[in-house]
Every structure is written in structure tokens, then in C-alpha cells.
Amino acid sequence: MTTEVPVVDDYPARDRHQIQTLILAAVILVTVLSTVILTVVSALWFNRFGFLHFPIGFYLLSQGLLVFIVAMAFWFIRLQERLDLARSESEGLG
Amino acid sequence: MSVPSRLRTPNPHLGAYYGIVTSAFVSLIVLLAMFEQLGWSRPVLAQTMMIVPLALYLLVAAGSRTREPADFFASGRRVPPVYNGFVLAAVAIGGVGFLAYTGAVFFLGFDALAIGLGWTFGMFAAGVLFTPYLRKAGSYTLPSFLGHRFRSRSVRIAASVMQLPPTALLLAAEIKIAALIASLFLPVSFSFGVVLVAALIATIAILGGMRAVTWAGSAEFLVGAVGLVVVVTTVSVLLTNLPAPQLTYGETFSALHNAEITAGLTPVQPGDLATALPGAAPLPTVKPFLQPFGILAPMDFVALFLCIAFGTAALPSLLVRSGVTSSIADQRRSTAWGLVFVALFAMTAPAMAAFAKLIIFRDIALSPASSLPAWLVELSDKHLLQVADVNGDGAISAAELLIARDGITLALPAAAGLPYVLIVLMATAALAIALAASASHLFTLAASLAEDLYRVIDRNQALPRLVAAWAAIAATALAAAVFLVIADVDPLMAALMAFAFAAATFFPALLLAIWWRRCTKWGVTAAFATGFAVMLFDALFGAALGIGKAGFTTSLASLIGAILALAAGIAVSLYLPKPSQAEDLYREEMRDPGGETIYDRAQLRAAAAAAASAAAAEHEL
After folding, report:
1. Which of B330, B541, B564, B566 has its CA 20 to 30 A from that of B229?
2. What's the pLDDT tens digit per position in B297-317?
């Protein structure tokens, strides 16, 4: 193994960043996953309504949820980059 | 000791190069459309449309040739996010998605949407959970990352072996799709098509490794996207008068419903997932397009969605591309771009399936069995459809029309009455995406064989690094070609099994390795072994024991495997001694968004140490 071990000594900032990253990842994944599963379970009920000539249950599974996931992905990137910036700033101050 | 960063500036002319590639391809389409009107024969049109782009991919690969390991294995870490997104999307969708997913939506309608949703969520989950950390680690292969993370050669070897089933199955599926298209439109048999495709992707991978796979893959993605957009938009204009198929195909639903009733389709009941997905052989359509949960019950739908999602998130061929961008932020953006392209395709495939079903069922309802439409006869000649008036009532019903699942996408432009150039254009697009995906799977598999098995097992390393990789690429391509000539592989089933293997083995292992500080090498090995054992049992004995009929299907098996693997990894890690300080520090560095790529810094320091010791030895002399 050629990889060597780095030295990381800014423990409070490091731990804070890791916890915030974990919370963000968990919240965003659980939100998206539960939205998908709720939509699947409620698809028959949604199908009673229409949108752009589509039954809404079909529309959500074929397009709506995909757009939602893409939007969440870009929102996640924005939030995560903010966390990373705060971490690098605290590193600079330290 | 501080080590200066390597300069990783993307080529500023990339946009111009790929603009030229796209313009050249569009010009070829326009030229051939003119030549078709001037009376060129169909074989000449087909051969020109397919062979010119193939030559272009080879040209791009030759221009990307390299002998630098950093370029060969990680494309120099200077691929811009959008271009990496192109290749990520091509690998995730592949020829299997292009042809087999569209066919599955044709047959299952609503129920097949689980697959497209699974790909999209899987790409999203990969971007959140795995790819930024793999980028920071910077290892050239996924097993190499796990080996460094746990300071263990045995974990590296185990991960390389675990990588074989998902990557090899996808490689076989993609080569089969590409060879199928070549045999339909070029004067070659299926077996010769397999050999040609294997030789082509091996040449691309040998010329420039990941670099050539990336740049040829970007060109292939653009050809695939142009072909898909031109054909589907044209069909949309013909059927709905609007050039936005994703938004307008809902308008065709009432006509589609009427055509299905006329053809004798009635609602069906939820069945068994193992037999519910349509096979590759021509089949009758049994389910109305819009009927929800007609073949897959809601829980089967969720199981299939999660299997594909976890499999996509942990697919080695996608994750190995985490090292090609210049930074962690770029890696996140590239995964998001890949997600955008996957979502766009997943929105377009149901439109294609709905258009194809409407045209086919409307036309057979209007035509007596004695005078079938010309396109139906033409597709029958290509073995994409089989039609016979079995009950002799003078009309063709849904039960009497057998349709090849993987032929739906190729049949759409013919059924819509488009010019022959557009029929071949769709085939060229599907071939391009299948080639991009198969080259990536081939390179992932061969790079792991060379880097994680050969270089770890052979301590003397008799073969130089790149020679070992070239040999592994050639041997893997040859093995895949021989396997496909002998075996009959169903691309969709092979892909489902591949995603299931990745979901049951790599997903829990990577989750523990990246997100859990307490995970040890024994824990990750236990996770691998458990997930692999469950999937192996399902693959070997599931059908024989009749488990599939009781609902214990491949997708469900992968989820059970993933949960058991996670539990085994946690239990074994907690039971055995804690990870070493070196493992802890590697993980902490990997989680830190700043600083150098860990692998690159280690390489630079190793090179500096070797140079210093050489200089010292020279000084002593």
C-alpha cells in the first residue's frame, strides 16, 4: 500500500463538519426516498386527477419525481458546498 | 512536507471539438437524407450512417492515446463536469436502457416506471453518499480504494472478485445489444458482430484507457442524444403536432386506450416479478399501458425500484469515474449532470413506448390480416415482430402480434413511416450508447484485474503497469466475445442481476467504509461475503427451488442481501478489535473536503523518496 497517513488535528471543526454532512445527507435522502415511496403507494389515488392529459399518478412516477430528484440534487450541492466552505474557513482561521 | 498541486486545467477547446463532432454528425444525417431522396440504396445508407460514426469514435480514441498511468487510469483528473456527466449517463442507461427499458415500458406500461425511477434515484444517492469521498481518495479502481481504506490486500482482492459479476454481466448485456443492432443493419452475422464490437471497445480502451473511454464516450453520448432527439421529436410532431414528446404524449392516451381495447387487451392481475419482466424473445402484449400495478404489485414495484437504485448508486463502472474530475466540487456537479441526462432519458422512454404502442395497435386494428401495413412486413423480415391470424377471423389481435422487447425502439421510426435514414439514425444512436457503456464496463473490469489482482498477487510485477492493463483488456474482451457467441444472454435480465449484485455487495460495503468510523476490514469482508452469498444462492438455486414463484425474486433477494450484509458488517466490526489508527486517519482525511487527493500525494511522495534514495546511492558511489 503506497498511501500514507495524513495528520488531521482540527478535531472540533472536523467533527462538526462531519455531523452536519451526515445530517444533510440523511435528511435529503430520507426526504426523497419517502416522497417516492409515498407517491408509489398513493399512485392509484393520484390517478383520479389529471395533468397535461396524464393521470397524475402516472405523471409523477414518469416525470414529476424525476424533476424533483434533479432539483434536490442541485439544492444538495449548494448546501454541501456551503458546509465545505465553512469548514475550510474555520481551518484557515485555526 | 508540502507537495504542490498538479495543474489540472481542462482543455479550453473541448467545447469547439465536440461542437464540431455534433455538427459533423448532423451534417451526415442531412446529407444521407438528401442521398435517400436521390435513390441511394438502403444498405449503402445504413452502412454509411453507422460506419462513419464508428470511425469518428476510433479517431477520438486515437487522439486520446496515452502511456501516462494518471491519464490511462484517471483521465488526468481534468474532465469537466458536463463531459463526465455525459459518460456517467451513457454508462447508467446503456444500450440496455435505450432498447430494453423502452421495450419493458411498452409491455408493462406504468409498472416498468420503477426502473427509470431507480436509475435516477441511484445516481442521486451515489452523488450524496459515495462519489465525493471516492474523489478525495483518488484511487484508480474501487477495490483499490477499499484496500487503501482498510490497509488490506485481502479486502482489495475480495472487492475485485465481488466486482466481477455486476461488471461482467453488464459488459455481456451491452455487447449483445450492440451486436444485435450491427447484425440488423450491417452485412454481418450476430457472432461476427459480437467479435467486431468486442474488438472496437478493446481498441478504444487499449489506446487511451480511461482517457479514451471518456472522450470517445462523450462523442458517443452526443451521437446517441442527437439520434434520440431527432427521431422522437419527429414522431411527436407527427402524432401530436408539438415537438415536445415528454409533455405531449399524454394527449395520445385516449387514442391508445381505444386501440388497446380494439386489439383485445384487458386489465390483468398482479403476478410474479420473476416472470413479469418481458423476455427478449417476441411476446404478445398482455397489459394495458396505463393500468397501474397490473403485473407488479406496489411492493414489487418498490422492491424493483430500490434494487435498481442501490445497484446504480454502488455500480463499480459508475463509481470508478469518481476520480476523473479536477476536484470534489466538480465531482458532485458531474454526478448532478449525469443525473440530469439520465432523468431526461427516463422521461423520454415512456413517450417512445406510448407512441410505438399507439401506432402499432392503431394500424393493426385498421388493417385486415390479408393486407398488413408495409412497415409490419418489413419489421417481420428483421424478426422484430411476428404476426399471424391464428384464429382466422381476418383481423390481428394483441395475442396474435408477437413483438421483440428490444426491437420497440428500432421499430418506432419505421412504424411512424419516417424516412429510412431516421430508422438507421435511431439504430446508430442506440449503438453509440451501447458502445460507450460497454467500453466503460470493459475498462473497469480489466483495470481491476490488472491493478487489484495481478499487481497485488504478483509481488515481482513482471509485467509493466500499462502492459498488464492492455493484456487484461484484450483478455476480458475476448472472454466476453466467446461467452456471448456460446451463451444466450437476455440483456434486461443480465442487467437486473448486475444491479442486484451491486446492491447486495458494494452498497452496504461502501456505506460502512465511508460513513462509519468503527468499520473494520473484517466487517467489510463480512458484508461482501454475506451479500454475495445471498445473491449467489438466488442466482443458482432461486429458480430451481421455486422461490421465485413465492415472491422471493431477484430484486427482493438483493434487498435482503443488502440488509443482511449491513447487519453482518456492523456485527463483525463491533465484535472484533477496533480499526487501527492508520485506518482512522485515512477515513478522516477522506471525509475532509479540502487538501490534496490522497492517492496522488502518496504517489508523488513515493516518487520523491525513490529519487532521493537514488541520489543518495549515487553520492555514496
Report:
1. B330
2. 888 899 999 999 999 999 999
